[in-house]
Amino acid sequence: MRGFLDSLLSLAVAIAVGAVVAYISGYNPLLVYYSMFVVPFTDVVYVTSALATATPIILTGLTFALGLKAGLFNIGAEGQTYMGALGAVIASYLAASALALPLSFVIGISLAVAWAMVPALLKAYRGVNEVVSTIMMNWIAYWLVIMEASTTFSNPMQPSETIKMPPSARLTPLVPGTSLTAGFFVAVAAALLVYWLLERSVIGYELTAAGLNPVAARIAGIPQSRVVIYSFLLGGVTSGVAGVLQVAAMPPSYSLATNLANVYGLGLDGITAAMLGRGNPLGTLLAALFLGLMEEGARHMQALAMTPFEFVKVLQGIMILVIAVRMLELWRRR
Question: Is the model's pTM score more than 0.85?
Answer without folding.
Answer: yes
